[in-house]
Write a structure and sequence with these properties.
- The chain is of the alpha/beta class.
- It has 17 helices and 12 strands.
- Helix 8 (187-200) crosses helix 9 (215-226).
- The longest helix has 34 residues, at 382-415.
- It is globular and about 65 Å long.
- The chain starts with a strand and ends with a helix.
- 41% of the residues are buried.
- Bound molecules: zinc ion.
């Protein structure tokens, strides 16, 4: 199972100083900052997924400066991301249009040739055909005949776009592996999509619009698709959020997927911020008084005292670092974290923090991030620590994925 990590220009600065929290004045982002595949001893994914919308800034999705965009076009995707410097493996590349960013428009803002120019110009291995998202999941609509006409219209538009994209690939004798996108609102409509994309000639098909679906709904769709899928057709799941289920999808012809979940959970989830092979832990929230807009607003409004906030922040950081050195008890560290939470008007989390402080999972991780950052990786504070935790999660997720697949492979071979 191949795991693609969607790029949104998330990098860390390896020279960041956790004590002073300052960057070197000689720091140059493009030269010095590192992607996950440059940080770990082995890349924590099989490849990267790069979206044209994120590069072009369509629909507010932009993450690239003008200079970065030009640099990507000049160096190509392999040079820009320094993929060939990654040790041990050849990382793969897939381009897509970023259909969610233009979903509200009546038609996609790109022509097939514009998209192929982008894919070929940047030197991607595979490119996803232009598509238009169908919003809605209503399997019963097939029975009642009450399908939203807008869904049916987009379904047909997607086939026209897919046909045009494939025709242009053939005419241009493109080296890009074309990937069709199946959309639908029910198992039957997804199966219909896959059948028609295969008829057009697609050998690799991405399942689109499944992000909001529950795991059982995804499996029901994959079961329907299994009835029409040619043996050689490979499926890619776009935007998987429930990554723990990924190995269950392997039996349905899914050979690859992409997900930002392991990375984003590091700083978006309420408590599952730090992965281990068997569990997740809450990171310890010690926000910066000076860099936190919520805290600054409370200080300006006179609701909390700046000096007191700084004192609590300092005490919490000191306590967590002292605990890491074995010089502070769990109870004392917990008290310092709670005092800062209470000052900010946040609900303290004694039980989930106690588990993190007692187990100290960062001490048992051998990934390069944890070895270099130590306890700092566990502190929910500022982008350098939070992204490092995300990079660590990618490393563990990749291990979990390999472990799951090895386990399911063992079961299969034992059964045989
Ligand atoms: Zn780690």
């Amino acid at each position: 199972m191949d795991f693609y990590f969607p790029d949104s220009q998330d990098q860390i600065n390896p020279m960041f100083d956790f004590i002073t929290e300052e960057r070197s004045p000689y720091h140059v982002r493009q030269r010095d900052d590192r992607y996950p595949h440059e940080v770990h001893s082995k890349p924590p994914y099989t490849g990267i997924l790069v979206s044209k919308a994120i590069i072009d800034g369509v629909g507010g999705a932009g993450k690239y400066t003008v200079a970065q965009r030009h640099r990507l076009y000049r160096l190509g995707v392999r040079g820009f991301f320094r993929l060939d410097d990654a040790p041990g493996v050849r990382l793969r590349t897939m381009g897509d249009c970023g259909a969610f960013s233009y979903a509200a428009q009546p038609t996609p803002p790109y022509s097939a040739d514009e998209v192929l120019d982008f894919y070929e110009g940047c030197g991607f291995d595979a490119g996803i055909a232009i598509d238009h998202v169908i919003f809605g999941y209503a399997p019963e609509a097939d029975e009642t005949g009450e399908c939203d006409p807008a869904w049916v219209e987009r379904h047909e538009l997607n086939f026209r776009l897919a046909e045009e994209f494939l025709n242009r690939c053939r005419t241009r004798q493109s080296h890009i592996q074309p990937v069709g996108v199946a959309h639908g609102w029910s198992p039957a409509s997804y199966a219909e999509s896959v059948r028609r994309l295969q008829d057009l000639g697609y050998k690799r098909i991405a399942m689109g619009g499944m992000v909001p679906l529950k795991t059982m709904q995804i499996i029901t769709c994959l079961e329907a698709v299994a009835d029409v899928r040619d043996a050689e057709t490979e499926l890619h799941l776009l935007g998987v959020t429930r990554t723990e289920q990924v190995s269950a999808f392997a039996g349905y012809g899914v050979t690859s997927f992409d997900s930002t979940a392991p990375f984003r959970q590091a700083f978006k989830d309420d408590k599952d911020n730090y992965y281990t092979r068997t569990s997740n832990y809450a990171a310890l929230r010690v926000p910066q008084v000076d860099g936190n807009t919520r805290l600054q607003a409370m200080i300006r409004a006179g609701r909390i005292d700046q000096a007191e906030a700084r004192g609590c922040e300092r005490a919490a950081l000191d306590a967590v670092r002292a605990l890491d050195r074995g010089e502070c008890s769990v109870l004392d560290a917990l008290a310092a974290l709670e005092a800062y939470d209470i000052l900010q008007g946040r609900k303290p989390l004694p039980e989930i923090y106690r588990r993190t402080l007692t187990d100290r999972p960062w001490k048992n991780c051998n990934c390069k991030v944890c070895r270099a950052a130590g306890v700092e990786v566990m502190i929910f504070r500022g982008t350098e620590r939070n992204k490092r935790r995300g990079f660590h999660n990618l490393f563990v997720f990749n291990q979990r994925l390999q472990g799951h697949l090895a386990a399911s492979h063992d079961r299969t071979t034992t059964a045989i």
